[in-house]
Design brief:
Keywords: Membrane, Transmembrane, Transmembrane helix. The protein is mainly alpha-helical and about 450 residues long. It has one domain. The chain has a two-stranded antiparallel sheet with strand order 1-2.
């Protein structure tokens, strides 16, 4: 009788984990579909479609709550306490500034509603789920590369380059009539995050044991070409900067494991392949390289490195007479501005640390910044331990992908940044757990 009950409980747990991972996958797919619907299929419903992913999160949270399956880690409990504190802060601000209730709720959503997703993924994502996620990313990178190439070739007012919404208008221009392709996303930052993530998952495939690889050599090369094409037409200094950080993270991780013979072989293969690839890249994408060079020159001397790292140092944007309670959580986002004024504009500091302080006040703003730093340290330490234990550089590679956005990226103001930030924090934490619980890989490359 007891054995039968244990089997039933085991099957119930398996069903729960499977359903959670299916929901995570649906959330990820909707991240791509959102922009397609808002730009080309249902632009008149752009505003409600913006929230298309939120019901999936509600479904996951209800499942976890109803079955007492929320993670029990101390960091998750602290995160939930912080979410409650900031919810109280939101109500105080609503009373003080008589802002619309929906605007305050939207602001709190940008700070904390997606947060549990990362810890749920850390706790319940398994290696087969990770591989399914990676396979989807790599394969969808191929049609996205075709799309972005045609967006790059098309004029700014072409249908393929329209923005989200009924009166969408045109996207960002690199210079002249050359646009920065949005791909399927509703905002330019989507490709800034997608393109480097494609590189990460390609490296995941490379370092998996032969029996676990999800791409054959043929499809690996095709997807690698899709990554190169998406990068070339991006026109984005941030994308190039992120890819550089990733490659540096990969090299540092390999050097950390250099005592392993298979890692030395992989290091040499990657360096040689990168040099050859760079030569081919400069020939095939000469026009695109010329355009990004022009973009850098037009940026008034701002380097790619400065573009990537300047977001967290702009405290000059903070008014010294700022109210203790801040100006209103979420006030600096375009969504809140639209809910309060009818115009979707960024109305507060461009840097996210500056925005956190202005919106929440000095005390609560720095409290949230400290929270972001703690998450970064937790992820970084877990990645380091997992890399050393597994003798595989993948955990630290994904830390390199996520840490910039989590540390000072515009996670509380831009919907795409918000989604990618918490989703890939979950991916990184899940990878740390997966690789920390396995022995050294025997088949790599």
């Amino acid at each position: 009788m007891s054995i039968s009950a244990d089997i039933v409980d085991l099957n119930k747990d398996d069903r729960f984990v499977n359903n959670i991972n299916k929901a995570i996958m649906v959330f990820y797919v909707l991240l791509f579909l959102e922009g397609i619907l808002r730009k080309w299929i249902l632009p008149q419903l752009s505003s409600p479609i913006f929230f298309i992913k939120d019901p999936v999160l509600v479904y996951m949270y209800i499942m976890c709550w109803s079955q007492d399956k929320f993670p029990k880690s101390v960091l998750f409990q602290v995160s939930m306490m912080l979410a409650v504190i900031f919810l109280i802060l939101t109500f105080i601000q609503l009373v003080m500034y008589t802002s619309p209730f929906i605007a305050g709720l939207y602001g709190w959503r940008n700070y904390f509603f997606y947060m549990p997703l990362a810890f749920i993924m850390e706790h319940y994502m398994r290696k087969p789920d990770l591989i399914r996620f990676a396979r989807f990313t790599c394969y969808i990178g191929i049609p996205i590369a075709v799309l972005t190439y045609f967006q790059f070739l098309s004029p700014p007012d072409a249908f393929i380059n329209r923005n989200a919404g009924e009166d969408g208008g045109v996207g960002f221009a690199v210079f002249g009539d050359i646009v920065r392709p949005y791909g399927p996303f509703s905002f330019v930052s989507g490709m800034v995050f997608f393109t480097p993530s494609l590189f990460c998952f390609l490296m995941l495939n490379y370092f998996l044991p032969k029996e676990e690889k999800f791409l054959s050599m043929f499809w690996f090369i095709i997807c690698l070409g899709a990554f190169a094409s998406n990068l070339a037409v991006s026109g984005s200094r941030g994308t190039y900067g992120n890819v550089f950080v990733l490659f540096a993270s990969l090299l540092c991780s390999l050097l950390l494991l250099i005592r392993h013979k298979k890692i030395l072989k992989s290091l040499l293969i990657i360096i040689i392949s990168a040099c050859l690839g760079l030569l081919i890249y400069k020939v095939v994408f000469a026009r695109q390289i010329e355009i990004i060079s022009q973009r850098v020159e037009n940026a008034k001397g701002e380097s790619v490195g400065h573009r990537v790292t300047s977001g967290f140092v702009a405290f000059n944007e903070i008014d010294p007479d700022l109210n203790f309670w801040g100006e209103g959580i979420g006030k600096g986002s375009a969504g809140t501005a639209y809910l309060t004024t009818g115009k979707a504009v960024f109305s507060i500091a461009e840097s996210d640390w500056g925005r956190n302080v202005v919106e929440c006040g000095v005390f609560f703003g720095f409290l949230f910044i400290i929270y972001r730093i703690i998450l970064c340290l937790y992820m970084l330490f877990g990645g380091l331990v997992a890399t050393l234990n597994s003798a595989v550089p993948i955990p630290l590679l994904f830390v390199g992908y996520e840490i910039q956005n989590l540390f000072f990226g515009q996670m509380v103001s831009v919907g795409t940044n918000l989604s990618y930030g918490w989703l890939f924090l979950g991916i990184s934490l899940a990878i740390n757990k997966i690789y920390n619980n396995q022995t050294e890989e025997t088949n790599v490359g």
